[in-house]
Amino acid sequence: MPKAALGSEQSRELQGKQKFYYGSNIMDSPYKVCRIPNKGEGLVATTDIARGQLILSEEPIFQYTDPRFNDRAEAFRRYNKLDRPKQKKVWKLFDVTGNRNRSEDLELVMQTNGIRLRDLMYGLFEIACRINHSCRPNTHSSWDPVKETIEIYATKNILQGEEITSTYIGNLARYALRRVCLKHIFKFTCRCWLCTLPEEDREMSDLRIQEINDLLKQEISMLGQIRELLQLYDLESIVGWQPVEAYKGAWLLASRSGYKTRARIFAERGAKLCAEIEGFDGVDTVEWRKRVMDCGDEDEEMPEDEEGFEEWLFGELEVKENVNGWGDKKVKEKIDGPGQPEAKESDEGPGEPQVKKGDDGPEEPEVKENGDGPGESEVKESGDARGDRV
Questions:
Q1: Which stretches of 125-254 are assigned E, i.e. beta strand?
Q2: Does the residue 262 lie in any domain?
Q3: 61 and 169: one domain?
Q4: Fewer CB atoms near the end CB (10 Å): N or C, the chain?
Q5: What gap in Å lies between CA 24 and CA 32, rounded to an integer?
Q6: What is the pLDDT of residues 109-130, one digit of tens each?
Q7: Domains: count for the chain
Q8: Cβ neighbours of 102 (radius 10 Å)
Q9: Which range marks the domain in which residue 240 is found?
Q10: What is the pTM of this model?
């Protein structure tokens, strides 16, 4: 396993080199929307933000079904039902062409800014769509189905003046593929701290990403596999749902094998990580807390030293006698790998694009559902609203 961690002092120094300019403050928010050199608009922290802190909770301007899998006219009908102030917000969002004369094309706005909410549903947001891309972002976004808001949490400590970033393509694609996809879909060359590492460090990163994807294709039957996966995530500075899913795999193996103490520890770690990316009252966080409660009393003595503790925690498991009717035999049931990668180099592309930067735009045009109406500002219902795939 390549050992040079991306969380090193060198990498942290690279992350802190960017400088930002004054922009418009958002009242009572830990960020401001401002101009960022070579990027257009973006979000910058106005105060130090702690890991796990809620940065933004925002309702969508409107929601729509992915036009690739549904009647394309549905998105236009939903847009036309918006009041004028909300329509203006849509047309202030940036589009991938960078051509101000074409920003009347609703499909380009959706292609550039659409954030997946659940299943095939996407949304456009006034603020969240202005968050710029990083291949190693410092936030995670999740959809709250109760409040119907997008919740954006810090996955790392963010310093005052540091840019707030998201990822458009997932974080499990290697360097060359990331560059191709971002250029093809979003029309820019990424210069985040990961992509600007020295070539040797970048190659080490690619090797780790390949190891992660190889592990995720396997059936997980040993805690040692999950420990290796978690170590790779840590070395690669990957935070978010992937480590949470890894701990879910560990919890499943331990609980199904009858090891209550280890199952509880894995559940506690999963609950802590989940709370950091979707809040203490998030749907998945609540489910994790239930898992902790369901683990019952301790049934093993735990080593006191840290190194010995981790060796014990991820040590080999055997099914205890009369656990779930299996008897005293090795675990036969295998579970799927803890989560699928967001980007696979053998697939069509590195995952769904998520958010793109915003910008000021012209006055909103009227959208014609049949594309036949007069005027220069019609929105035609042609083309793939999510863009081509690589």
A1: 132-133, 139-144, 149-154, 163-166, 219-220
A2: yes
A3: yes
A4: N
A5: 6
A6: 888 899 999 888 899 999 999 9
A7: 2
A8: 12
A9: 219-336
A10: 0.75
